[in-house]
Amino acid sequence: MHKTYRNEYQRLIGNIHRTDGYIFNHFSQKLAPFDLSVQQYVVLRLLSNDYPNSLSAGELKERMTELNSDVTRLTDRLVAKNLIIREVDPQNRRRVNLRLTEHSKQFIDTVAVEFSDFESIVSHLTDDEVHTLNTLLDKIRNR
């Protein structure tokens, strides 16, 4: 056991945190040439899944994995980059819908090519190790 940890449970938390940072940095480097943050890419991918339809900000936030994401800030930046459009919902004028532009749909398809092998970051693990790790991570979140 590494001397900076009181026990293996503390070490586990540190390992999970470092691994999250490692994966986040890996994806950030892949997105840098496209001038996108990881969170922006996630928003664009989620909107891409519903394209040409739109999602409300609330629906988008529900689908995001990052619990504390600031959807307004993220979408403001994507609107400024002309990658998404905000539209007032004709059925409910208090609701704002978000959707990709036709150009951004093509852009996201191009960026997605960079992530076609994103599993490569864990490809050195065996099938059994992947299954065990998935089971344990699910168990941590769903206690």
- Morphology call: elongated
**Second CATH tier, the architecture:** Orthogonal Bundle
Termini, distance in Å? 25 Å
Q: pLDDT below 50 for ≥5 consecutive residues: which ranges?
A: none
Largest β-sheet summary: 3 strands, antiparallel
Radius of gyration, whole Å:
18 Å
> What share of residues are in beta strands?
5-15%
**CATH class label:** Mainly Alpha
The tally of beta strands, per DSSP, is 3
Give your account of this protein's structure.
Residues 6-142 form the HTH marR-type domain. InterPro entries: HTH_MarR-typ (IPR000835), MarR/SlyA-like (IPR039422), WH-like_DNA-bd_sf (IPR036388), WH_DNA-bd_sf (IPR036390). The structure is a single chain. With 143 residues, the chain is mainly alpha-helical. The chain has one domain: Winged helix-like DNA-binding domain superfamily/Winged helix DNA-binding domain (Arc Repressor Mutant, subunit A, Orthogonal Bundle), CATH 1.10.10.10. The chain is built from 6 helices and 3 strands. It has helices at 8-31, 38-50, 57-63, 71-80, 102-114, 127-141; strands spanning 55-56, 84-88, 96-100. A 3-stranded antiparallel sheet has the order 1-3-2. The longest helix is centred in the N-terminal third of the chain and has 24 residues, at 8-31. The chain starts with 7 loop residues before the first helix and ends with a helix. The relative contact order is 0.11. The model has no long low-confidence stretch (mean pLDDT 89).
Task: Summarize the topology.
Layout: H1 8-31, H2 38-50, E1 55-56, H3 57-63, H4 71-80, E2 84-88, E3 96-100, H5 102-114, H6 127-141
Antiparallel strand pairs: 1-3, 2-3
Helix pairs in contact: 2-5
